[in-house]
Design a protein that fits this description.
By secondary structure, the protein is mainly alpha-helical. Helix content is 81%, strand content 0%. It has one domain. The two termini are 19 Å apart. The protein is elongated.
Length: 67
């Protein structure tokens, strides 16, 4: 498996705990600034990992098309 696919695996692994915490604690997060900030950072990292994997996948497919 290529490294870009490994990077893409980070996105759901980081987004799932964020979704669980938001679902579980909901409105309580409005009062917990540190937890809210940590969740924002985790979700941002997940989004960036997905973006990097997608961009590299598109670039590599453009450069090395399947024949």
């Amino acid at each position: 498996m290529e490294w870009k696919q490994h990077v893409a695996w980070l996105a759901p692994m980081l987004a799932t705990p964020v979704a669980y915490v938001v679902f579980r604690y909901g409105t309580t997060l409005a009062y917990e600034e540190q937890i809210r900030r940590a969740l924002i950072v985790l979700f941002t990292i997940a989004f960036l990992a997905a973006a990097v994997a997608g961009l590299f996948g598109a670039f590599l497919t453009k450069v090395f098309p399947i024949r």
